Amino acid sequence: MAQKEALDIVVLAGGISHERDVSLRTGRRVADGLNALGHRVVFRDPDASLLAFLDESRPDVVWPALHGASGEDGALRGLLEITGVPFVGSRADASRLAWSKPTAKTVVERAGVFTPASVTLPQETFRELGAGSVLSTVLGGLEVPVVVKPAQGGSAQGVTIVTTAEELPRAMVDAYTYSDVALIERKVEGVEVSVAVVDTGDGPEALPAVEIEPVDGAYTFDARYNAGETRFYVPARLDDEVAEAVSAAAVAAHKALGLRHLSRIDLIVDGSGTPWFLEANVLPGLTETSIMPQAIIASGREPGDVYAALALAAIADA
Q: What is the value of pTM for the model shown?
């Protein structure tokens, strides 16, 4: 489809997940960037009238800016596929793979990318086998430190770094607040980096890796979205060879999961320079403190231009 002078774009933001406020901030940034380029943007929350609205208005493209289950678990994206309206981002099947952290780890590891050893535990496991027995077995196999996180979800909600055996039960409770399944993962010591991957039609490209250094030592929800809580280094302070390995691992993960248009791949680089895959995000945060806008700027582009290019890519892929 040839580019119009202005596209009719619906930006979806908000939703009912734990990440609603972050989604609204992301959506506003996307809408502002598109508006600045002259596109006609409708900014709206998904609700009971959304599908009828899309069927009647038939916009050129939908730009989902929905974090959490409402935008990233594949359900809404599957419905958008049925409507036939082009939309930015991964399709439903790939979104389902990435949304489940244990599944994503398995898929990416089979593609040849390292990922930390882990165990996945539904709440039912504790009722069946006993909490004490299960946690004792986990600690015997993985040892501390470990990272406990919900098997689904983002923005570091429900994530705990466990450094002693006594901390593990509470960490499990916190993770189960956000998901019925928890992932316990061996903590790899090293440099935390995040790589934005974009594909506007010429294949996936890794943007400069962003190094994350939280002021208090943990990249928590507050550290992600409150200015001054985290130091970011763009590009990451890595040797050229290691930086290339990090970019290659990010693109490999993006491809293995079948992601489309944009993603953010989170990794740890250990002391030997080996990148370890942690998780993939089908909708990276795009707020004023988020990683992907920083990476876009470091690549010599403006965020609004990239968001518009992704909208055109979605139309071309429809």
A: 0.92
